[in-house]
Amino acid sequence: MKIPVFSFFCLVFLQVLAFPGLGRESKVRSSPAPIGYPLTPVGLGRVALGDGFWGDRMKTHVKVTIPHVLKTLGVDYSDPRPGRSALALVRTLEGVSYSLLYEDHKELRAMMEKMCANVGELSKEGNRWFGAVPEAPAFFSMVTGKSNAWLKECLKEYRLRDGEHFDKEGAHLKEPEAHAYYGMAIISLYQATGDEYFKKLARKFMDIRGMPATGQRTWPKFAAQHRPVEEMNEPGGHAGSFGWFATALVDVGALSGEKKYGDAAIRIWQDMVDTRICITGGTGAVSRWEGFGEPYQFGRGGYNETCAASGLVFYNYRLGMMTKEAKYFDLMEAVLFNGFLSGVSLSGNKFFYTNLLESGGQVARQEDRRVPCCHGSVARTIPQVAGYFYAHADNDLYLPLYGTSSATIPMTGGLVKVAQETKYPFEGKVKFTIAPEKDGRKINLHLRIPTWTGKQFMPGKLYSFVGPSTEQWEIKVNGNPVKAKLEKGFAVIERSWKAGDKVELNLPMPVRFSSCIDKVKATRSRLAVTRGPLVFCAEEVDNAGPVRRLSFPDVPEPGQVKVTNLDDGALKGMKMIHLPGTQKLADEQRPAVIRMIPYFSWENRGSKSMSVWIPQGQIENAPPLHWHPTSDLKDIPKSGKGGQTEITFENHSGNSVKLYWINYRGGRQSYGQVKSGEKRVQATYANATWAVTDENDKWLGYFIASHEIASGLIPKK
Ligand SMILES: [Zn+2]
Fold first, then answer.
1. DSSP character for 665?
2. Is residue 461 in a domain?
3. Residue 105 CB neighbour total at 10 angstroms
4. Which of 94, 99, 285, 468 fits a disulfide with 136 by CB distance 3.0 to 4.6 angstroms?
5. Model-level pTM greater than 0.85?
6. How many domains is the chain built from?
């Protein structure tokens, strides 16, 4: 959140005021899970993670990510105070609070106690920013069962902001926030205190959307300020901010019982999945405002900030809890396993700010402050995932997300113990053991059957699988196949259960190939490869050279596809897909095995080229690029933009020549000499201009790169 955060900080620091004493003590709730939904989540603290995908991630999270990020942010455990990157800090501390529900880490708990006391003091001294971000102290109060000085300052702060933003009749006096984060912030105060005042306040801030501007605030669309909720039909503005706004929108709907909020959240969702989400769940294609562009305006690069993915996880989870429809959990899963998890290295201490779908090798995850906010989003999201595994309502038990875990669930008719064991997302078999407190208990078990078991990878109109699936999901109860009815994307098994009953769900995971609708230019005539909920990508290290040279001459047949386990090295535990393809050079193409790994695991073995969307079709050898002879720099056009490609320059001029890239403003950048008779393979982008001089700097001519890999023959003078 580079530029916007700057303007935001300016605003809050300009508003420093003395506090009137406004806060009051309220009782503390026990679970930080979302509240007010038709489905009740089985929150953190009730779910134990076993050894498995998310259990492993939580271990890395507690052992590596949290200490690393706190160190990066300059937090001294003996006297913890906020320093740099305030937003990342509060998000990370929120993650620390959740983590304490898995494991009572004494050092972290003590640090949090001191931090809450120190920030409380700081806020009293007039620093209003920390009063405005209450999630960390609010959720920490739920962990400890008691309030804290920081939380008390937050309660005061929001009462103060209420008075600043609204008059006594509720008319608004000034715009709310730049980053649309008030909604989730205020709701956390309600969750922590149960004070109805904050429930109403969250709704007030939602209802001033679309009010005329009253001051010099940020671009209205950026903060989802541009329209009243009733008229919102599409996602817009800053993608990270949008996720937080949309999350609060669903929460306000659930808490108020007013349909208009949830309806708006669904309309926006539908537009997003139909027109502007990457197959990895990445959103926000426009780097200028780090946000959404026009419909179909996204490509293989894109911005796809990790914070935006984190926000989409929260938003989709709540839509699922509101509607009991699996498709929202399906999208949550797609974002979580792909565009979100790629934001953090397997080692847990390096982070992506943007999550590109194609790289020439120019990007790498960073350990430090070059990721201004996203490590905080990683730190707050991963420990919440276990809270998404189980949910219930009356006699209905829901499994929105699969992972090795166990939970004791307080259902209406008594406690029910559920355990699941699985290698998900790498294998589609999930084994459940169910044990109600009393045998003979009637429970309707709802098992999510993901969108990717059908005709497409994710909900919406953008992506569809090429070719039909021949394998069907199946369910067994105590070893016997059962027919389950499908209801809103869940297979429902209605029966009386006794302790020790076993259920086995088998979701076949063939390798599938997706195409995107033609309206999205960047993915035309290309295929994306998925298996189960995972998007795969080709990385240079596995493919003997830059991945831009790879293509599928045909859609691989099931018999030509091989899936192997990676048993050692940096990607230990991952799957690799091997596919028949072609490697293209300037003047030849040869058969090649295309090797692909889960997208989230790329750039863990150094930063080289990577691609999700692989060209498809029989590719003719491209003719050599047209040579434009000229002796004047003025005649040479500046470079345009395009996707990755390469040129093999061949110097037939009889003398050494100098090679220049002509940049986007028309300036030249030297790429050294090519001797007479030599070849040079040059990575570049389509529409780039490459110009040539003789040894005495006299211009000879230029080439313009095409989207196809081609040669550039420098002729005799
Ligand atoms: Zn971020």
1. T
2. no
3. 16
4. 94
5. yes
6. 4
**Backbone dihedral region of 213: left (phi > 0), alpha (psi from -120 to 50 degrees) or beta?**
beta
Distance from Cα 677 to the centre of ligand 1, integer Å:
49
Tens digits of residue pLDDT in 561-580: 999 999 999 999 999 999 99
359 C-alpha to center of ligand 1: Å?
A: 19
Please write down the HEC assignment for all residues of 103-145: CCCHHHHHHHHHHHHHHHHHHHCCCCCHHHCCHHHHHHHHHHC
Quick check: 139 pLDDT over 60? yes
Q: Strand ranges (DSSP E) for 369-461?
A: 391-393, 396-399, 405-411, 414-422, 429-436, 441-448
User: Separation of 158 CA from ligand 1 center, angstroms?
Assistant: 24
- 37 lies in a domain? no
Phi, psi of 701 (to 5 degrees): 160, -175
**Segment 398-409, tens digit of pLDDT:** 999 999 999 999
Domain annotation covers residue 564? yes
Measure 315 CA to ligand 1 centroid, in angstroms.
16
Domain that holds residue 302: 2-19+43-388
For the stretch 526-566, pLDDT in tens is: 999 999 999 999 999 999 888 989 999 999 999 999 999 99
Domain CATH number, residue 640: 2.60.40.780
207 shares its domain with 152? yes
Q: How far is the CA of 96 from the centre of ligand 1 (A)?
A: 18
Indicate the pLDDT class of residue 177, thresholds 50, 70 and 90: low
